[in-house]
Amino acid sequence: MRLAFLYDIHGNARALDAVLEDIENRNVDQLFVLGDIAYRGIEPERSVELVRGLDAQVIKGNADEWIVRGVQEGEVPDKVIEGMNQERDWAHANMTSESVNYLNELPREIKEE
């Protein structure tokens, strides 16, 4: 069985396109997305759309949670929290409420089927 694990996409839909093409060429049997789908990159919405269109098990990463509710004190060094929340606000503003809700509803672990 061929497995593929994707993670730390961080809104880079262009790179995700290339990785997905490579995965398709390798005849992968099961795909897993291990979080951090949209935060920080220039295409947060398209990154979520691509992941949603996959036949994959997907879990929520910390950056997915940050899209939903922002970065909170104690999660990152104090000196970077303001900038990180500005990045989060930009990404959130460039996503549909449906995509933000998708991230919110993701499970935190993969359940054995």
What does this structure look like?
The radius of gyration is 14 Å and the shape is globular. A three-stranded parallel beta sheet has the order 1-2-3, with no helix packed on it. Helix 2 links the parallel strand 2 (30-33) and strand 3 (56-58). The protein has helices at 13-25, 44-52, 62-69, 78-93, 97-105, and strands spanning 3-6, 30-33, 56-58. The chain has 113 residues and is mainly α. It has five helices and three strands. Helix 3 (62-69) packs across helix 5. The chain starts with a strand and ends in an 8-residue tail after the last helix.
Rg estimate, integer Å: 14 Å
Number of strands: 3
So how many helices?
Answer: 5
Low-confidence stretches: none
Strand portion: 5-15%
Order of strands across the widest beta sheet? 1-2-3
Q: Quick summary of this structure?
A:
The chain is mainly α and 113 residues long. The protein is built from 5 helices and 3 strands, in the order E-H-E-H-E-H-H-H. The protein has a 3-stranded parallel beta sheet, with no helix packed on it.
